[in-house]
Sequence to fold (231 residues):
Amino acid sequence: MTEDGAEASAGSLLSSQRAYYERRAPDYSSLTKPSDRNTAGLLHAEVARMLIDELRPGGDVLELACGPGMFTRELARHARTLTAVDASASMLARNRSEVSDSRIRYVEADLFAWEPDRAYDTVFFGFWLSHVPPTFFRQFWALLRECLAPGGRVAFVDEDDRGAAFEEVRLVEGVPTAQRTLSDGTQFDIVKVYWEPAELQRRLTELGFDIGIRRVGETFMYGVGTYGVGA
Fold:
């Protein structure tokens, strides 16, 4: 497959992924609604709080793919300013409702088309990196370079390679793909890349990032670092 063909395939999957999360927003991470998979794919709230307290993201903070607000709430406790970006209007509406903090600036945008209007001291994203197609990996990390102020930090939480044991992942024209099902039975394909931490760290080093990654719990990983150190 040509590079253009791979990007077209990834683009189609990203469109399906956006549609899924837009529809899923009201039920996402709800304990009273049917799960769309074998594992919840989310940390317990107290673990999220612990990791953000460890990060201590002061100054101007950017959260990418902010979702329903579990991390947003914790980031807002530390940040001087917080900008939260998501492609789903429904997710942003739920985040506003659940976090309810007038200091947060919300931005609805496709992260593969969005351009930052300022630089940030910390850029954070939770459970997003696994949804970035391999063909867009360099593009995404180039965006992070644009977002970072001098000396700024990048941090993320996601499922690692251990999570792959809980669901079937297939390749669709070279893109790792998983299926999600809404409570009404509607099915969507989404991008799902289960990174092995050491391999991810190696790839990021090649791109000029100095990021330490460690495993958390049974299926998660946490990464934090900077761009340009030792590059």
Summary: Residues 3-24 form the longest helix (22 residues). Residues 210 and 229 are 6 Å apart (CA to CA). The chain has a mean pLDDT of 91. The longest strand covers residues 148-159.
